[in-house]
Amino acid sequence: MIDCNTSAWTLTELKIAKAYVRLCAIPEDSPEASVSLASISGYEIRMLAEPRAVDLDGAPLFWLELFDHSTKTSVDSFCCHRLKDAVPVVCDFFTQVDDLGNAGET
What we know:
Elements: H1 6-24, E1 34-40, E2 43-49, E3 62-68, E4 73-80, H2 83-105
Antiparallel strand pairs: 1-2, 2-3, 3-4
Helix pairs in contact: 1-2
């Protein structure tokens, strides 16, 4: 699905940064505190807002979630403390979607 070479890595970083800016623009009390990063074959990679915590020192910036629309469940998720933390997670989520698609073919 995604080749995480240097240029793909940089493009993924930029996409994550743009999504984070959009996520930060969503009001705190909004029920839609998430931004879609990608949709692939019935799966979606979402960036979710971390609930505002009193102690911000240890709180993650956001969560990433791999969501299965057919079962309406989260397949995997990961908390990110820095934007750069998210790139390998997004690459892994693309691999998981590819693996799940291949498992359905056997």
